[in-house]
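A quick aside before the break. I want you to see a complete sequence-to-structure record at least once, exactly as it would be stored in a machine-readable document. Don't worry about memorizing anything.
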Amino acid sequence: MSLVTRYAQKAMEKIAPLRLAEKWDNVGLLLETPVPRPNATRVLLTIDLTPSVLEEALEPSTALVVSYHPTIFKPLSSLTLSNPLQASLLKLAAAGVSVYSPHTALDSVHGGINDWLAMCAGAPDGPTSEHSLKVAFLGEAKGDEGGLGRVLFLRDPVSIEELVGRIKKNMHLEYVDVGKPVLPRKVSTIAICAGSGGSVLGGFDADVYFTGEMAHHEVVAAVAGGRYVVLCGHTNTERGYLPLLASKLSSAFATLASEEGFQEDSEPSSTTSGSSVPLTEKEKETLRDIQVCISTTDRHPLERM
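That is the input. The structure line, written in tokens, reads:
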């Protein structure tokens, strides 16, 4: 395993511990190349591994792709070039590039995607502003590190128009889809889930369901129950977080580069510590040289015409 990939796993574990992922999810290092590029120091962030993102990843400087959505989700009975995603994985492995996915661990962790969405909905001045918000988990907490979904409690109720305008501004979206109940009213409680939130939000008592997408009958049921529904598009609720992840990952690499050594014999998520091996000056220099980049071609797969 390359030094970049090894330390990227350690860094991502600090940012979004894999134990926070949902039981059904497939997270962590999903592809480890057998021929790592010796001088590659770029980590490429993306939501999906599309053909265009693949071309970016095949550039000689790339050592690792951090793909938010798992590139391998269901068990594979074969791995062939006839399947586009499998072909991308084979090409990356042959070229010396590995792939890591944090998915729902990054949703659930404190300061992760769902908290960012809460800021987008609750902070009038933007998700990076110093704005105090009252936010809770939709379900049980997962220890002290995070939990599933979020519910945002606004101090002062707002109209749905004001809320939608705030979301569009903070997430840099031209439009969102909105379901409205028969009787209009101001809103103060917003249930939040990144991506496809129907199964998480359904039945929760809130004025607004805010997510990426929901099934038709889930939307109908929510609106019939007197709730507003705000749908931004699945990946639109995730992609805007990538700059924050890039910043966190760069900081984590810098911190790790300053440490004395790494745990040679333990996996990043292990609770037991292995033997500490001092870093050489060349390894420290490699860690300091790591560049965390966001894909320039990753985008929402649908366009409105």
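Two observations worth writing down. Residues 242-258 form the longest helix (17 residues). The longest strand covers residues 187-196. We'll return to this after the break.
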